[in-house]
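Quick note —
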Amino acid sequence: MLISVGTTNPAKLKAVESLIQFEKLEAVCQSIETNSGVRAQPLSDEETRQGAIQRAKSALEMSSSDISIGLEGGVSEHDGEMYLCNWGALIDGKGHLFTASGAKIVLPSTLSDGIKQGAELGNLIDEFSKKHNVRKGEGTIGILTNGRMNRSDMFFHVLLLLYGQYCFYYNIKEVVQKVTK
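Predicted structure written out below.
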C-alpha cells in the first residue's frame, strides 16, 4: 500500500510511520509538499479541517497512492478562550473522505494574544520556549504539557481515528452487501 502524506513536516510524518507500525501495515509513506489552501495560521476548527482536507486531496492528485493523508494544526476559540487544535483527513483512491479532530488544550493568554495580533503560533512558541522550529519536533503541545505529549503523538491519535473510520467503512459496506443480497 502506498500512503501519500501532504507534508514534509517531520513530526507529522513520524505520526504516519507510527500508524503504519501500530497497524502492522505493509505500506510505504510518501511525503509530498502541498499547500493547505488556508491561512498560515488557521483560526478555527473549520479552517484547520479544510486545510487538512486540501492537503490530502493535493497529495492524492500528485501521486498514485492508495490513500492520502492531510494533517493540519491550528487554533480555535471556545467560550472566550483560544485552544490549540488539530485535524486530519484521509482520502482513498475512490474518493471516500474521512476526517477527524484530536485533543485540544487552552493556550496561555500570552500566546493567544499574539495570535490575535496576527502572529503565527509556530513563531510565538519558538520565541516563548527559546527553541527553534518547535513545530517540526515536540510542537506547542509538547511545550504546554511539559513534554508529556508531543506533536507526533497528537497527530497519531487523529490518524487512529481516521484509519479506524476507513476500515469501518469498508467492513460495513461488505456487511451491507451480504445482508441485502
